[in-house]
Amino acid sequence: MVQKSQLFLLLVFIIFSAIAAETENQDYVALLSLKNIWQNTPPSWVGPDPCGKGWEGIGCTNSRVTSIMLSTTGLTGPLSGDFELLSELQTLDLSYNKGLTGPIPRSIGNLKKLLNLILAGCSFSGPIPDTIGSLEQLLYLSLNSNYFSGHIPPSIGNLSNLLWLDLTDNQLNGPIPISDGITPGLDMLLNARHFHLGQNNLSGTIPPRLFSSEMVLIHVLLDGNQLTGSIPSTLGLVQALEVLRIDGNALSGLVPSNFNNLTNLNHMFLSNNKLTGPLPNLTGMIFLSYVDISNNTFDGSDAPPWFPTLQSLTTLIMENTQLQGQFPVALFSLPLLQTVVLKKNQLNGSLVIGTTHSNQLKLIDLQFNFISYLEEKEAYNGTLKLEDNPICGVTGNLSSYCTVSLSNASYSTQKVDCEPVPCSSNQISSPYCRCAYPYTGTLFFETLSFSDLGNNTYYNILEESLMHSFHSHQLPVDSVSLTLSNPITASSEYLEVKLKVFPYGQVSFNLTGISSIGFMLSNQTFKPPPLFGPFYFIGDKYEKYTESKKSSRSSIVIEVVVGGSILLLVILLAGVYVLHTKKRAERAIEHTSHFSQLDKSNNGGSVIKVKGVGWFSLKELEKYTNHFSIANEIGSGGYGKVYQGSLPTGQLIAIKRAKKESMQGGLEFKTEIELLSRVHHKNLVSLMGFCFEKGEQILVYEYVSNGSLKDSLSGKSRIRLDWMRRLRVALGAARGLAYLHEFANPPIIHRDIKSGNILLDESLNAKVSDFGLSKPIDDSEGSHVITQVKGTMGYVDPEYYMTHKLTEKSDVYSFGVVMLELLTARKPIEHGKYIVREVQETMDKTKDLFNHPEFLDPAIGLGTTLKGLKKFVDLAMRCVKELGSDRPMMVEVVKEIENIMELASVNPDVDSTSTSASYEETRKRSSLDPSYTYS
Predict the structure, then answer these.
(1) At the top level of CATH, which class does the domain 276-403 belong to?
(2) Measured between alpha carbons, how far is 176 from 185 in angstroms, rounded to an integer?
């Protein structure tokens, strides 16, 4: 009798475990709590099974809620303290719901697995709870554009994995917290790439200990606060820094003398402070494109000598900086210059506008100076402002220069060659003349690389970038429209661009489409073109989607039906549980069989060794690539095609799918996977997983956003690589190859090095890719291996081609060809001419390629001093020596490129890595040391 009772209890336990397996009870309770306190929850939120019944915005894994993505859905109400029950939650995105109010409950600190906390553009208030510091796995923390007050919690310093910290546009006050040995602080965030803390009420000094050489920050935004004291010299240690905004504070004292160590800096805003002393020394800051140091009290001085050295400069704003003497005509020689604002200074004498100024120069503002004479050697077509200069008191035809004209920069997306149609209701006509309800909002760009705001080309590029991103994430977007009108009146303001996103194939978006678009913009998945700097987005409420909830009577009917069916459900679930368990076992067996298939050709050899590499089902990859659609195709070759995909977390991946006729045998495919699973280096594209199912051979890699070096050199990707960036690309690729040759176990020869297989990430760091032809060399094989010649014509080592002896020097030869491509932007074989022979013949005659500018790519920066060019050419020609024994090893190549970069005044250890990287280079170790890498 006891045994029967125990069996009955066991059956009851199994039944109710099966019921709970659909959605864990604690998760369901938490979601019900949210549903009860929020208004405008999705109409699909009915029924007892959020994971199995399609509650929109709720993502589950193994019956546990792992994501809540409800961006721009019109939610109103506070956050529930029952959030802590969602113990498996990884992503919480409630951005752009202005109706969400009140404080963040302290219990949020119990969500130990949270990776993304995104509450941007809501109406939350009160202090940020210090329990956020308990979210040890957090990568993205975006709380911008709310009403948070109080101090920044020091506990945020405990978030050692944090990449993105955005607290912009709140009411935070008090000091910036730093650690003191007991209390944590922001200085502990050594993996963070972004400090966005602007537009608050922060006070006190910028603590010197906030910055260190161990940091990999690329954005520091502290603008629009109440910070005092001096700029700490430790800021000059953060050499990866690309964007610096500390304008709009009350900073005083000297600009640190080591400021020009920030050689990767693109945007620098020091304006509207109380800085004193000499003008900052910007010598060597060759990537600077936008400089604003206006409205400070610097010592009076003539134009500094570094003006003409800033070859990337588009915008120079030095209003009210006590500049004196003759106008620095050398500025006009800068090739990319668009805007010069030197108003309210003490410049005097003549203004000579010669023939050397850039055609891009649209504005010269010299109001309130002492200019007495204007000499135009040719008509200047831009805007010249000379009001309140002595020259305006002289009779002559200068009225257009002496009358202040207001900026009228505007842009609006034009219709695409279609007949406008009248739209009914509140619908709007898209650029393709289709009536729909667009999703709208505003993009706030915190910095720009340009100042010619009336140039439509820039906005066209932004539109193309947005559409590419929407399509790559398989979002149902037909087109986008951008609008701005009199966008900014001062350089310290953010550029506001109104965005309309039109739905594809329908007149309105559903909730899933809206929240997916919101997440792409709130989670910074969308990376704007390099012309546009960091941004944030604020979405508008999507009125068309908002629907009234079902009546209470309908809810009662549903509950009665559910309650009346519960007994039958219990009985059925017992059988479902058994069937579910059986299918899980079958899937496990099937999963295992994929690995065993790889071993069949190895006569029962060892199990595949793929530590750190995942297995993907074909069904998953079809879902991630929209069934391998043409829209997702990003590359192709003899092996097959490469598709862009997106994981449920939003992470992008590149999926290489082999053609049937090019597939390897099972053993070779297994070997390639094992090979790639062992190599981990920041300059090598990482293998994330594979699929070996239904006759498919598929490899899944990390996605590298800026395409190949080949695309950049050809102009296809619209990425400009000047001399310094090319040196950095060469160094990165060389380091990756040297790692394969020296530290991989066993050593690996890539065998297909070419510009098409060197990819550039979002910060233009080089990553060697495509290891399909790679060959490991065991100790038993000596220094070479006899093998069939494979590779790409023009890059193949001639010695390897003749003898079939493959060595590391074969990769060195191919890399030498890539170095020549970097110099010339020519294909290895073009119009029957071989680049190696062409350059060699030229060098034999003149010993200096710079005397033959027709060989050099104009985009490299001709007309400037290309320091180290001769050494780079000499190194490339040594790499392509006919005999392998005459070529250097890759470790030697790395060292020589480092020396060339030092000669060109660039620190070779400075890399702008992608936001997903979590490593830090250190000067104490060799750049090729395996411990230098990340997994």
Answers:
(1) alpha beta
(2) 8
Of the candidates 740, 794, 807, 796, the residue with the CA atom closest to the CA atom of residue 767: 740
Residues of the chain with CATH 3.80.10.10: 276-403
Q: How far apart are CA 870 and CA 852, in angstroms?
A: 12
Q: Do 240 and 261 touch, CB atoms closer than 8 A?
A: no
- Encode pLDDT of 54-82 as tens digits: 788 998 988 899 999 999 989 999 988 78
Binding residues for ATP: 660
Query: CA 529 to CA 482: how far, in whole Å?
Result: 15
Other CB atoms within a 10 A radius of the CB of residue 335 amount to 17
pLDDT of residue 424: 81
Quick check: 621 and 700 in contact, CB under 8 A?
Answer: yes
Which of 430-439, 842-851, 905-914 bottoms out in mean pLDDT, i.e. has the lowest?
A: 905-914
Q: Are 917 and 187 in contact (CB under 8 A)?
A: no
DSSP 8-state secondary structure symbol assigned to residue 659:
-
Residues tagged active-site: 752
CA–CA distance, 654 with 645 (Å, rounded to integer):
6
Instruction: Extract the annotated binding site.
Output: 660
Cα angle, residue 78 at apex, residues 75 and 84 outer, rounded to 5°: 110
| Sequence-distant (≥ 6) Cβ neighbours of residue 433 within 8 angstroms | 415, 416, 418, 419, 420, 421
Helix, strand, or coil (residue 715): coil
- DSSP string covering 192-250, please? --EEE--SSEEEEE--GGG--TT---SEEE--SSEEESPPPGGGGG-TT--EEE--SS-
List every span in the chain annotated with CATH 1.10.510.10: 709-932
**Largest Cα span, the chain:** 117
CATH of domain 709-932: 1.10.510.10
170-226 pLDDT per residue, tens: 999 999 999 998 999 999 999 999 999 999 999 999 999 999 999 999 999 999 999
Helices (H), 601-722: 618-624, 666-677, 709-714
Q: What is the DSSP secondary-structure string of 249-287?
A: S--EEPPPGGGGG-TT--EEE--SSEE-SSPP--TT-TT
Identify the pLDDT of residue 490.
Answer: 67
- Give pLDDT tens digits for 630-667: 888 887 766 778 898 888 777 788 898 887 765 655 65
pLDDT of residue 355: 60
Q: Is 600-703 CATH 3.30.200.20? A: yes
Query: What is the tens place of the pLDDT at every residue in 146-170?
Result: 999 999 999 999 999 999 999 999 9
Measure CA 561 to chain center: 50
pLDDT, averaged across the chain: 80
How far apart, in whole angstroms, are the C-alpha atoms of residue 146 and residue 118?
Answer: 11
CA distances, 260 to each of 209, 245, 257, 267, 901 (Å)? 19, 16, 7, 13, 16
**Cβ count near 194 (within 10 Å):** 23
Residue 785 has pLDDT above 50, yes or no: yes
Count CB neighbours of 840 within 10 A. Answer: 14
As given in the structure block, the two tokens for residue 588 are 């496990």
SS3 percent helix, strand, coil of the chain, rounded to 5, is 30, 20, 50
Give the pTM: 0.61
**Angle of helix 666-677 relative to helix 552-600, nearest 10 degrees?**
110
